[in-house]
Amino acid sequence: MPLANTTDRYGGVTKTFHWLTALLILSAFPLGFLGANTSHQIAQASGAEQAALLERAATIFSLHKTLGVLAFLTAALRLIWAVIQPHPGLLHGDRKAEALAASTAHWLLYATMLLTPLAGWLHHSATSGFAPILWPFGQALPFVPQSERVAHLFGAAHELLQWVLLGTIAAHVAGALKHHIIDRDDTLRRMLPRRRVAAQASARQPGHAAPALAALAILVVAFGIGAANGSFAARGVPEGAETASAPQAGAGNWQAQEGSIGLTVVQFDQSVGGTFGNFTADITFDDTVSEGESGHVRVAIPIPSLTLGSVTPQALAADYFDAEAHPEAVYEGTLFTTAEGHEARGTLTLKGIEQPVNFPFDLSIEGDQATMAASFTLHRKDFGIGAAVPGSTVAEDVEVSLDLTATR
Ligand code: HEM
Ligand code: HEM
């Protein structure tokens, strides 16, 4: 079979691209719906059932994203090939309305088979952790900020574009079948693999401008309807909440000015970073002590202020932090200055469970300004967090990082 197109037949490359993209896209759809359905069930389940559903949803979404990314790359190559190749004309280009509908559908298909997976990939890039793309070439597209807002925006675009793509495929398939069954012409046959069908295109063909504009208008209307229905509206995520913590100064002779309490969790071998939106710190510290007890600290952290990539709702749910029943975590400790440096020794009360937590910290004081930093590991199961979730899904060790500046 000749590889290149001519003005009256499709070559092998175009046909392979056509059926390969169709196969990938038509596999991505059921996986997407199945994954979304499984995600909804997670919220209603608990314990071991929830852990199993989470793992299942991640596997389905990983497959979905992998096939979707392949669909995107195949569609991009296909578009380049279509641009540099002659295009066989429509067999009935003289039937004006029908020809306009067919060409509009082709333009829409080209646009949405690129934009739908691209929006999905941008959504994936703006979140972290959950359900990786199963390939070794990196996960995130460049220059996409890690932000719930951006993720939500592209998620909404992904969903809108899916429906335009699905509707257009339905119209496109109906058109192909109409040609085959009612018109009994060669339209479908000349696209089938291993057939050498060359059919004479009609002399009259639709131009490019009208169908391209019609396709654009359909996309604009779809996005307009989506915007009117509030698909793109922010869902109450405060601007910047996902990136910074704001400490509130408490009692003590040092007042916290800025800082953050961060978490890094490894989920499905991928690091997911998060922060608590705010916390209160009461710090008493005597920087004249060179050996021995030098102060006291009490830090109260509102658990619902946590953002942890795309898995924030799961992290706050009953099996993990259980933010509703235990809305606050408290660390209370004594500060020691030793020859090696500084150390906090105290207890952390998290999810109603009290455990000793000691950690060294770096401290530098310039005039009336102190900067401290610490990082240490907690074992989530010591606090009953994700007790039923195996370490292969969410690692048991959680990295905690603290940064704080305080003034005297
Ligand atoms: C042609 C390719 C694709 C099609 C047809 C497609 C279709 C779908 C469908 C039907 C859903 C379910 C929507 C729902 O019911 O809520 C979905 C969800 C999703 N897709 Fe895709 N998708 C494609 C490519 C991708 C790619 C490449 C990625 C990422 C790399 C991706 C990421 C996602 C994510 C993260 C969701 C869940 C969205 C959410 O729950 O908010 N998709 N997709
Ligand atoms: C996800 C699914 C599909 C996509 C994205 C898609 C996309 C396209 C595009 C963009 C064209 C224009 C030709 C070109 O320039 O390459 C085309 C042509 C064609 N498609 Fe599809 N297609 C899909 C599924 C199907 C299915 C399932 C059928 C059969 C029932 C079909 C039958 C045809 C035929 C017969 C043509 C040739 C039309 C002509 O020569 O005028 N397509 N398709």
Q: Can you describe this structure?
A:
By secondary structure, the protein is α+β, with helices and mostly antiparallel strands. The protein folds into two domains: 217 residues, no CATH class; 162 residues, Lipocalin (Beta Barrel), CATH 2.40.128. The chain has six helices and eleven strands. An eleven-stranded mixed β-sheet has the order 1-4-5-7-8-9-10-11-2-3-6. Helix 2 crosses helix 3, helix 3 runs antiparallel to helix 4 and helix 4 crosses helix 5. It is elongated. It starts with 11 loop residues before the first helix and ends with a strand. About 2% of the residues have low confidence. The structure holds protoporphyrin IX containing FE (2 copies).
Which structural class is indicated by helix and strand composition? Answer: alpha+beta
The 3D shape can be described as elongated
Number of strands: 11
Beta-strand percent range? 15-25%
Helix content: 25-40%
Query: How confident is the prediction overall: mean pLDDT?
Result: 89
Helix count equals 6
Bound small molecules, by name, code or SMILES, are: protoporphyrin IX containing FE
Q: Strand order of the main beta sheet, please? A: 1-4-5-7-8-9-10-11-2-3-6
Report the uncertain regions: 236-244
